[in-house]
Amino acid sequence: MSLAVRKVRSEDAAAIVDILNPIISDGNLSVLDTPLSVEDEQEYIERFPALGVFLVAEDREGTIVGFQSVEPFATYTHAFDHVGTIGTFVGLPYRRKGVGTVLAKATFASARAVGFEKLFTYILATNDASLVFHQRLGFTVVGTARRQARLGGRYVDEVLIERFLDDM
Does the pLDDT of residue 168 top 80, yes or no? Predict the structure, then answer.
């Protein structure tokens, strides 16, 4: 699959919502539990942190098939300025076709360029495919947060993972 990776634009909101809402509806792939509107996503894009990274992957026809973002881990202290939280979302029909890997290569380079040294995220313990994907990208498991989220009235665990960017 031939892909182009670029920075997100406000007008990408509808395509991003089209990727996110089926993932949210699945109930086992993300802690996001409320479908998003295009307006919500446009506002999120417009307010995205200046020191963050938000990239989309487009196929040859210009269809956005996935996106990845890195945001500062915490803004209440400078102790975590080197740590970013990463989120990866690939449209359900485009999974296991290399979209996430292409995005990660560009995202990691961009994250280093803006000063991030480490990426951190949480993965639902039920999302084995995501955990395997991230481990292939060099993430390591830090631990498991038990009963971390409550989705649909049930508690679920989250696996905490990290990757240092200095080994690129």
Answer: no
Q: What is the pLDDT of residue 166?
A: 87
Q: What is the pTM of this model?
A: 0.94
Q: Can you give 43-92 as a three-state secondary structure string?
A: HHHHCCCCCCEEEEEECCCCCEEEEEEEEECCCCCHHHCCEEEEEEEECH
Domain assignment of residue 29, given as a range? 4-120
Provide the pLDDT confidence category of residue 28 given band limits of 50, 70 and 90.
confident
Task: Assign 56 to helix, strand or coil.
Answer: strand
User: How many other C-beta atoms lie within 10 A of the C-beta of residue 32?
Assistant: 16
- The kind and range of the H/E element at 21 are helix 13-26
Q: What total number of domains does the chain contain? A: 1
Confidence check: pLDDT of 7 > 70: yes
CATH number at residue 73: 3.40.630.30
In a domain, 11, yes or no: yes
Contact 111, 84 (CB under 8 A): yes
Q: Please provide the average confidence, as pLDDT, over all residues in the chain.
A: 95
